[in-house]
């Protein structure tokens, strides 16, 4: 189980025909708990899909009672019709839950969509709204179908679970392309039966996403539909120490971020860029991101070439505090550059394994940050050149 591992949650995933493959494409997670609470983090892209615009209003009203997610269409840049589609979807879920004995309002229903931007016509609306009744009948506290229903170009489901002392966390995620802050092209639903209020959940979620999802930068492209949702049912009756819960949530988010990295479109290397000795966390992140978004560096990794010169060229474009002629650069544990000059022979470095670790020592302070990225491959270019068709 995943999002139904914590007590007080039911979920379901079905196929309504949004995907041409006939695979599941509509999912619902319902919070049946006695003390519902929620927190949400959204994409920072100014171009935001209709579900994001709707969900932003929901979180201002109070705790969410449920979240419905579709793949097979982003419902972004679809005008007033698309926004009305999102509203009608929320209304259908709320009406169904109320009829089933769980009083709900549309303003308590979060909505997420993922897929091709510009997709959201009458057929799209009819399939989603028309599929809600069946989705409600499939709800189960032992469900395992929801994670598959939110996938787009993903090749595997992404889930994580944490077992606390009498309470737990469960999560599912999707994302394989457009992986860059804020968040990544991701939809993430995290559930817990710990008894925590909205404010505590919000603090923990923001602390967890900052070093995980916000440092996943596979291809430098930011999505219009990103949403990470955390819901608490309070069903365990246990209120863990906030620091304990935050640490557990951070571990769940880090696991999901690593799974997203490993499933990035067309990638043949998963690259962790660890920046050490920075004057600040912000500097460490800026330096790491400058390398993660450098196509020359990413192409070199694809070719198994530990081209450390491209690392130095990339970090030199930042305003971080360091002396580029004092920097060390290591690939997979082999220091190839010391104090801005060649060190070990590049032949000593093996980049054939998929996992690649790049360490950059700035000698400018005591702060460290790691950015996750991937290489630039022929497969990535091909997949994204043919995506809409």
Automatic annotation (TrEMBL):
<keyword id="KW-0511">Multifunctional enzyme</keyword>
<feature type="binding site">
    <location>
        <position position="174"/>
    </location>
    <ligand>
        <name>substrate</name>
    </ligand>
</feature>
<feature type="binding site">
    <location>
        <position position="384"/>
    </location>
    <ligand>
        <name>substrate</name>
    </ligand>
</feature>
<comment type="subunit">
    <text>Heterotetramer of two alpha and two beta chains.</text>
</comment>
<dbReference type="InterPro" id="IPR016117">
    <property type="entry name" value="ArgJ-like_dom_sf"/>
</dbReference>
<dbReference type="InterPro" id="IPR002813">
    <property type="entry name" value="Arg_biosynth_ArgJ"/>
</dbReference>
<keyword id="KW-0012">Acyltransferase</keyword>
<feature type="site" description="Involved in the stabilization of negative charge on the oxyanion by the formation of the oxyanion hole">
    <location>
        <position position="115"/>
    </location>
</feature>
<feature type="active site" description="Nucleophile">
    <location>
        <position position="185"/>
    </location>
</feature>
<comment type="pathway">
    <text>Amino-acid biosynthesis; L-arginine biosynthesis; N(2)-acetyl-L-ornithine from L-glutamate: step 1/4.</text>
</comment>
<keyword id="KW-0028">Amino-acid biosynthesis</keyword>
<comment type="pathway">
    <text>Amino-acid biosynthesis; L-arginine biosynthesis; L-ornithine and N-acetyl-L-glutamate from L-glutamate and N(2)-acetyl-L-ornithine (cyclic): step 1/1.</text>
</comment>
<dbReference type="Pfam" id="PF01960">
    <property type="entry name" value="ArgJ"/>
</dbReference>
<feature type="site" description="Cleavage; by autolysis">
    <location>
        <begin position="184"/>
        <end position="185"/>
    </location>
</feature>
<feature type="site" description="Involved in the stabilization of negative charge on the oxyanion by the formation of the oxyanion hole">
    <location>
        <position position="114"/>
    </location>
</feature>
<dbReference type="GO" id="GO:0004358">
    <property type="term" value="F:L-glutamate N-acetyltransferase activity, acting on acetyl-L-ornithine as donor"/>
</dbReference>
<comment type="similarity">
    <text>Belongs to the ArgJ family.</text>
</comment>
<keyword id="KW-0808">Transferase</keyword>
<dbReference type="InterPro" id="IPR042195">
    <property type="entry name" value="ArgJ_beta_C"/>
</dbReference>
<feature type="binding site">
    <location>
        <position position="389"/>
    </location>
    <ligand>
        <name>substrate</name>
    </ligand>
</feature>
<protein>
    <recommendedName>
        <fullName>Arginine biosynthesis bifunctional protein ArgJ</fullName>
        <ecNumber>2.3.1.35</ecNumber>
        <ecNumber>2.3.1.1</ecNumber>
    </recommendedName>
</protein>
<feature type="binding site">
    <location>
        <position position="185"/>
    </location>
    <ligand>
        <name>substrate</name>
    </ligand>
</feature>
<keyword id="KW-0963">Cytoplasm</keyword>
<feature type="binding site">
    <location>
        <position position="265"/>
    </location>
    <ligand>
        <name>substrate</name>
    </ligand>
</feature>
<comment type="function">
    <text>Catalyzes two activities which are involved in the cyclic version of arginine biosynthesis: the synthesis of N-acetylglutamate from glutamate and acetyl-CoA as the acetyl donor, and of ornithine by transacetylation between N(2)-acetylornithine and glutamate.</text>
</comment>
<feature type="binding site">
    <location>
        <position position="152"/>
    </location>
    <ligand>
        <name>substrate</name>
    </ligand>
</feature>
<keyword id="KW-0068">Autocatalytic cleavage</keyword>
<keyword id="KW-0055">Arginine biosynthesis</keyword>
């Amino acid at each position: 189980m995943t999002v139904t591992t914590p007590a007080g949650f039911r979920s379901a995933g079905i196929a309504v025909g949004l995907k041409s493959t006939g695979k599941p494409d509509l999912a619902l997670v319902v919070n049946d708990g006695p003390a519902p609470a929620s927190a949400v983090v959204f994409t920072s892209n100014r171009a935001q899909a209709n579900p994001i615009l709707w969900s932003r209003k929901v979180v201002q009203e109070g705790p969410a009672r449920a979240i419905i997610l579709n793949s097979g269409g982003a419902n972004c840049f679809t005008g007033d019709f698309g926004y009305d589609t999102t509203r009608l979807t929320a209304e259908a879920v709320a009406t169904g839950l109320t009829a089933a004995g769980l009083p709900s309002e549309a303003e308590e229903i979060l909505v997420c969509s993922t897929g091709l931007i510009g997709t959201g016509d009458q057929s799209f609306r009819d399939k989603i709204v028309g599929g809600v009744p069946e989705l409600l009948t499939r709800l189960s506290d032992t469900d395992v179908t929801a994670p598959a229903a939110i996938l787009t170009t993903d090749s595997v489901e992404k889930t994580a679970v944490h077992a606390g002392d009498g309470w737990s966390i469960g999560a599912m995620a999707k994302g394989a392309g457009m992986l860059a802050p804020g968040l990544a092209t991701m939809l993430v639903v995290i559930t817990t039966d710990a008894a925590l209020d909205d404010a505590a959940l919000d603090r923990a979620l923001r602390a967890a996403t900052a070093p995980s999802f916000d440092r996943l930068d596979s291809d430098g492209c930011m999505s219009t539909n990103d949403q990470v949702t955390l819901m608490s049912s309070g069903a365990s009756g246990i209120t863990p120490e906030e620091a304990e819960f935050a640490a557990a949530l951070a571990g769940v988010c880090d696991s999901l971020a690593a799974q997203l990295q490993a499933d990035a479109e067309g990638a043949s290397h998963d690259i962790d860029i660890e920046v050490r000795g920075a004057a600040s966390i912000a500097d460490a992140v800026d330096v790491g991101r400058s390398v993660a978004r450098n196509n020359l560096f990413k192409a070199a990794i694809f070719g198994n070439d530990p081209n450390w010169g491209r690392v130095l060229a990339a970090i030199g474009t930042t305003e971080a505090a360091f002396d580029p002629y004092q920097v060390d650069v290591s690939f997979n544990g082999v220091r190839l550059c010391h104090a801005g000059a060649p060190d070990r022979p590049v032949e000593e470095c093996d980049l054939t394994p998929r996992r690649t670790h790049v360490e950059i020592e700035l000698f400018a302070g005591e702060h460290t940050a790691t950015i996750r990225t991937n290489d630039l491959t022929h497969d990535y270019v091909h997949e994204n050149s043919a995506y809409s068709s």
